Amino acid sequence: MRQLMPQGSREARLNIRASQYQKEIIMEAAKIKHTTISNFVLGRAYQEAQEILANETNFKLDNKKWKIFCDALDSKPRIIKSLQNLLDKDSIFDNA
Questions:
Q1: pTM above 0.85, yes or no
Q2: Out of 8, 22, 34, 42, which residue is the most buried by the measure of CB atoms under 10 Å away?
Q3: Domain containing 80: what range?
Q4: Residue 1: inside a domain, yes or no?
C-alpha cells in the first residue's frame, strides 16, 4: 500500500543528526537519484513509514485462511479459569 508523497507546501521541519560518513552516503545516493538530500531522505522516510503503518493495520489472506480467521472470530471464546480468577479479583486501581 504505497502512497505517493503528498505535494504542496512543506511548512513542518525535521532536524536530524548524522555522522559524516552517513551524510556522504546519503548525498551520494541522492545524487544518483537526481534529487536533493532533503527530498531523498523525506521520500525514503515517508515510504518506510507508510509500509510500517500498513503492516500494522492491513493484512491479506487467501479465501481459505480468511474463512479460518472469520470462524475463529465468530467462535465462542474459551474460558481460561486462571485468567477469569485474575479478572474477578479487585485491582489496586479499583479504589484509587
A1: no
A2: 42
A3: 20-88
A4: no
pLDDT in tens, 13-71: 899 999 999 999 999 999 999 999 999 999 999 999 999 998 888 888 999 999 999 99
CA pair distance 49, 80, nearest whole angstrom: 38
Residue 77 counted as domain residue? yes
How many domains does the structure of the chain reveal? 1
Residue 3 lies in a domain: no
Contact 41, 94 (CB under 8 A): no
Residue 4 has, within 13 A of its CA and on its CB side, a CA count of: 3
Q: Please check whether residue 41 is in contact with residue 26, taking contact to mean a CB–CB distance below 8 angstroms.
A: yes
CB 37 within 8 A of CB 30: yes
